[in-house]
Each structure stands twice: as structure tokens, then as C-alpha cells.
Specification:
2 domains; D-Maltodextrin-Binding Protein, domain 2; 5-stranded mixed sheet; alpha/beta; 11 helices; elongated; single chain
């Protein structure tokens, strides 16, 4: 009977917390919930597995475009840790006081590349005015959403800087995240695509045609932080582990640039 009363009180508290916006306490034994940019999937899965082996703790990771994840967190999704593929979406949450002060750190960097199916014969030299439209031969250019997803924004900025965006704007096949753009090219649905170097490295069905000069777009960075009101000892430990020598070695193996 006593246990039943305790359960009823707990349920009532959770209902009250949801109604008032008060964050429910995180159980010490609950998995750490991580919201991470889609481009991190292979590397971060390996890092999380290593953390679990080392600590016996679990991390539950949701991957999507950084814009989608930031909006979900804003709407109350129960993430403990957020890892964005650009500074803008972390700033978005920071301005809304949804980032726990003092926990934000810049972990990684990346490079932007033009890809094609592995058997493609296309050859291009990325430079101002290069004939991207001609290389598409009437096909489409796969990119992540250029209005919100970091990879899409970096890609559009690069094409604008190089003076070729207007020539291909009408041929862009926009995807919900960078891994979806990668899949378009891997399946042969588009002849070319723009993704991160690390995405191309984990997909054998594509090849890198050329790498965009770093000065054609804003620096590609991956900041990570705890979410305000969702902190726990395990979440703090996981965030710290992301910049450990062991994690850095895994990220480097997958082609990320270590920035911390």
C-alpha cells in the first residue's frame, strides 16, 4: 500500500511538472539522453559504446539535423546533452537560457566536400565560377536543408562565395539532414551532393569529387553542452568524456578535426 501511494505521488508530480514547465529530476540510473547532429552518428556511436564499456553507464542518442533537435529541446524534449553541427543552433538555445551555464565547449571541426556515386566519372575543380550546373547534366544536387541544417547552410554559403549558387539553385534536392543528402547520392538518385568529409568516409557507395576551400564558408564546428534543468552526474561525465583522449582518438579515426 505504501509503495502504491509513492507511485501515485510520483505520477502526480510528473503531471504537475509537465503542466508548469518544471523539469522533472533525472534519475541517477537513467540513460544519458543525447541529441546530436546527424553527421556524428558513426563516430559518436563508437564513442558512446566505449564510454559504456568504461563506465557501465548507457547513453541514448537521437540523431537529426541540428535545427530540428534545437527546436525539439525548445519544446521540452528531455535531452541531457546537445551536440550541434554549428554554433548558431547552440546560440539559439543559449539565448533562450536552455543551455546550462559553463558547460558549453567546442569539440570538433570538419570539412565540406562534393560527392558523387562511387562509379561516377565526373571530375571537377572547385574554384570561383566552376561549372557545377554543367556537371549535373540536368540532374539534381543533394544538400541538407539550406535554411536550417548546418551542412546545407555551409554548402549554400560556399556556392554563393564561388558564384555558382544561382546557376544550380533550381536543381537542389533538399534533405532533412546531411545523412539523408548522403543517401540520395549513395542510391544514385542524384549525380552530385554536398556533405561533410566524415559522411563521405563512412559510405562506400560514394566518392569525394573535390573538397571546398575552408574560406568559402564559416568554420565548421561542433559545440556541445548540457541542457539547463536536465543535468545529472552521468550527463556531466558523458560530456567530459567527449573531450577525453580516448574519445578524441575515435573522432580522429572517423576524420573529425579535434578542436578542444
Amino acid at each position: 500500500m505504501l509503495q502504491r501511494h509513492k507511485n501515485i505521488i510520483r505520477v502526480l508530480f510528473l503531471i504537475l511538472a509537465a503542466a508548469t514547465g518544471i523539469a522533472a529530476p533525472v534519475r541517477a540510473d537513467a540513460p544519458v539522453t543525447v541529441f546530436a547532429a546527424a553527421s556524428l552518428k558513426n563516430a559518436l556511436d563508437a564513442v558512446a559504446a566505449d564510454w559504456t564499456t568504461s563506465t557501465g553507464k548507457d547513453a541514448r542518442i537521437s540523431y537529426e539535423g541540428s535545427s530540428v533537435l534545437a527546436k525539439q529541446i525548445e519544446q521540452g524534449a528531455p535531452a541531457n546533452v546537445f551536440i550541434s553541427a554549428d554554433a548558431d543552433w547552440m546560440d539559439y538555445l543559449d539565448k533562450r537560457k536552455l543551455v546550462q551555464p559553463g558547460t558549453r565547449k567546442t569539440l570538433l571541426g570538419n570539412h565540406l566536400v562534393l560527392i558523387a556515386p562511387a562509379d561516377s566519372k565526373v571530375s571537377l575543380d572547385i574554384k570561383p565560377g566552376f561549372d557545377l550546373a554543367g556537371a549535373l547534366k540536368g540532374g539534381r544536387l543533394a544538400m541538407a536543408d539550406t535554411k536550417g541544417v548546418p551542412a546545407g547552410k555551409y554548402g549554400k554559403a560556399a556556392l554563393e562565395k564561388l558564384g555558382v549558387w544561382k546557376g544550380v539553385e533550381g536543381q537542389v534536392a533538399q534533405a532533412e539532414n546531411v545523412r539523408a543528402a548522403l543517401a540520395f547520392v549513395a542510391r544514385g538518385e542524384t549525380p552530385l551532393g554536398i556533405v561533410y568529409q566524415t559522411d563521405a568516409a563512412v559510405e562506400p557507395k560514394v566518392k569525394i569529387v573535390a573538397t571546398f576551400p575552408d574560406d568559402t564558408h564559416a568554420p565548421i564546428v561542433y559545440p556541445a553542452a548540457l541542457i539547463a534543468g536536465r543535468g545529472s552526474a552521468d550527463a556531466s561525465a558523458f560530456l567530459a568524456y567527449l573531450s577525453s583522449p580516448a574519445a578524441s582518438a575515435i573522432f580522429a579515426k572517423y576524420g573529425f578535426v579535434i578542436l578542444h
